[in-house]
# Entry
Amino acid sequence: MKTILTNIKLNAHWFTVIFILVVSTGMAQDQLAFRIKASASGMKDFYSNTVEVNRPLNLFVPNAFSPNNDGVNDVFKAKGEGVDDFQMVVYDRFGKPMFKSNDIEHGWDGFVAGTKAPIGVYTYEIIAEGFELGTYRKTGTVMIASNE
# Structure
């Protein structure tokens, strides 16, 4: 449990207000819950209702990878939180789809039809729906830096 502590003055009384991050094993990974506790010397503690919120959509897409089986950056994939639905397509230089994924955990390993793709720059398109803040749409390029 994490807390944020602050003091406020209300009706000539100083209250200690604690924002409590509630962690529950029953909650989804992309959810947070908060509760507020207010207390003052000589007064009863007050607690708010627990409020559950979804994490906002946050996505990171690398601009290069090296599918050379060295265990470092071998797969091109997005990383993020707050993602509800995900689609990624990687295209060759002629605009032909080479790789498709509907799973943010399943990235492109640099192979096309069982053959290593040549070192170079490829275009991708990502569409992700978030639990909060709608749709993320990104078109960009990724470089295969090394495949040997």
